[in-house]
Amino acid sequence: MSICDLKAYEIVQSRDLSDLNSKGTLLRHKKSGARVLLMENDDENKVFAIGFRTPPSDSTGVPHIMEHSVLCGSREFPVKDPFVELVKGSLNTFLNAMTYPDKTVYPVASCNDKDFRNLMHVYMDAVFYPNIYEQDKTFRQEGWSYKLDAPDEELKLSGVVYNEMKGAFSSPEGVLDRVILNSLFPDTSYANESGGDPEVIPELTYEQFLDFHRKYYHPSNSYIYLYGDMDMEEKLNWLDEKYLSDFDEIAVDSEIKYQKPFSQMQEIVQEYSIASDESEEDNTYLSYNKVIGTSLDEKLYLAFQILDYALLSAPGAPLKKALLDAGIGKDIMGSYDNGVYQPIFSVISKNANMEQKEAFVEVIENTLRNIAEGGIDKKALQAGLNYYEFRFREADFGSYPRGLMYGLQLFDSWLYDEEKPFIHMEAIPTFEFLKSQIETGYFEQLIRDYLLENPHGAIVIIRPEKGRTARMDRELAEKLQAYKESLSEEEIEKLVQDTKDLEAYQEEESAPEDLAKIPVLGREDISPEIAPVYNEEMEIDGVKTIYHNVETNGIGYVTLMFDLSAIKEEDLPYVGILQSVLGIIDTENYEYGELFNEINIHTGGIGTSLELYADAQKVKEKEFKATFEMKGKSLYPKMDVLFSMMREILTCSKLDDEKRLKEILAMLKSRLSMSFLSSGHTTAALRALSYTSPLAKFKDDTDGIGFYEIVKEIEENFDDHKEELICRLKAISKQIFCADNMMVSYTSAKEGLAYMENAFAAVSKQLNDADAVQTEAKENRCIIHCKKRNEGFKTSSKVQYVARVGNFIDGGEEYTGALQILKVILSYDYLWQNVRVKGGAYGCMSNFNRIGEGYLISYRDPNLEKTMEIYEGVVDYLENFNVDDRDMNKFIIGTISNIDRPMNPAAKGSRSMNLYMSRVTEEMIRREREQILSADQKDIRALAKILKAVLDADQICVIGSEEKIEEQKEMFMEIRTLS
Predict the structure, then answer these.
(1) Is the model's pLDDT at 117 over the cut of 80?
(2) Is 67 a catalytic residue?
(3) 3-class secondary structure for 156-173?
């Protein structure tokens, strides 16, 4: 039987998606009206997703709360958290749910057929038959609720989404993004915050929450997607018989409304919070935003990605350069958001001032006018087109399944016109069209039509307000106190009882018979084999090369690795600065903008990074290797250009360009400070580890808080430091970039090796020569000094990132593969239940590695002291760890799922190189896998002493709100503001 013979569906259209090696079919389920799209190909990493159009009518966050809540138990799987049970016991390659401004999507992926079927089953049951109607406790846990522990205690608000969005609204970039979207579409659902505004979330009632599900979570409003190598007929029959045939088609008013264009530009000013001792000067965000047609215009959709590159995003792009030259802001960012019905082009100036608004607009419009009249740099257009086409053909989405990313892109048109799901999948003809328009004035006309002469736009300004977070917290506390005082004794008692009932519900374990309904794989479904390692040692032109023979579809992936072991400790931050500077500063033969374009015209890109490889065979000595790495990729015939451009960057960069160095430092400072709010959990863990770990101290000094503090000092007092900065950058560059300090990693198929050898020989001899100073430096290995600090970093955030770390090998324990299982157990059982479910934090994680580093961290956490107490309880939890064989089996399968991720060609090469550099043998990997697969409960209980060693190290770091850190100041040895 073929798809054509299925009686329950009608085929709406078919497409040969040859550029993606896929066959596309759009179907409609006759009875329910469900839309179904298939992408058939030979990819074993199968993807299923079901999405719904969910336009919010207010900012209570009901789409977001619903996304969390439907995954908390359903008709066939009535456990409290089937999502977590799946994470524990599935071989998934992706498992999540996402709320967007106009849709909610539930995607899963797996390479295992049985597992894939299980994941589909749980997700379909969750969205159509959730247990949210049976009681309100899921709504109160995931959304919001009053929390009152006793009649005389303070009344508070709690809830996972509530706390998540408090964290999201603490980020000025997050606030800016929201205000831009809301302000450009005042007459549509985009005017509301689908994730939820913390000030509005408590207005949502349980009945409104249920009404939202009744209205939007129906097959008639659904978009179902299947991708990969599977029996599509069998899946379609199952969907029909098990779920879709239960429903009759209904009319669901979920259309994403079109915003009628403005007759004139709007202007919106909003405040964001900074810490009480931060400066308001140079802390305003200015943004210029225009609406660009609709995402149903496939040419415009891609053309503005190219224009974003050519005008704004590429280093040296004219808008960025003009604003920096005018001194308007220190970090110029931009975006083209085409994931909404009416895409938005934005120019953002960070670290600016309110009074610069008119100049900001004038510089942008004058620059655009000059470009429209004089013509765009054709090389910039060619570079942008090649950059995006290379990415489209390569389809390297890192750890994300390819089918997932295609599915999400389908929604960019399918959601707004169900007859046009494939237009962005058929991109090659659009690229060809755009290439043919480079010399025609087409792009210049787009600038006139959509940027200069388009009144549908907004100037959005986000300005700082000192102590805003504290003021809002105080106002909320007063509001809650007033509300409490308005209640009768009986009503107060009811709040106390409701709080206790919710806590009792959270403590209550799901019935064993309900847990047994969650499908679980057996250990027999797991291969005992490890992933292959592709390492072949050779020498090319006298340089040690590790070759990874992998099929790469004609692309060669090169990494030049320079040893940093002779760099002095005090020079480490300067290595971090050098890594940030190279590639975006002028060279002897190119201005930096021209250099970037030249690279992207001919190759897939060049980037730099600092990498650390802990020696797995010398963990007690804490030995590690640090490298400065330059990575590049190109088609085989372009290898000569790739290496030529690498040499240009390494040996010809003008490191004495004071103006450009200052610009880069300002941008670097800005991006680092942004990361502290978005990735505060990993920043805090790294900082805490750096108190005793030379490796972590190296990373903190080159990419963490230690690095940030040096960058901030140099940038703010540039004239005092510039001579020393230039001197150090030049000295480090000369010291490390020489052939006898280099090793090469190269990934390609066999036929790509000759191209690389020929191209490399022309470059390696042009690197710096080693001299006596370098030889002497090599003999003096870097010694890193660590110091315990136990710091609290105050920010304007409303939430905390709480890290507790330690080295268990220092504490006399040894690494075992069972620690990988512990990571799953803690992250999805002990920490999940206590830090997230009961504590209200958005996330919690743990990790333990071969060199003895262990950490427990929380993410967007309303608590601090309470979370530290939970960490203290982990030893007792492990000493009394007791689960049945089925649960133990689940934890093991979840662990293997984290290890056995499908890898693209580049990932296979980099994993192999990582193992080589860390001296991890195949035997060590095999032994770890055996320890995981054979583990039982007593092996987990034995890990209690490892966690005790981690906790006994007593290393903590917290990034969080001023108020919380000051409240708990006795916990810290040092308290500082992170600004």
Answers:
(1) yes
(2) yes
(3) EEECHHHHHHHHHCCCHH
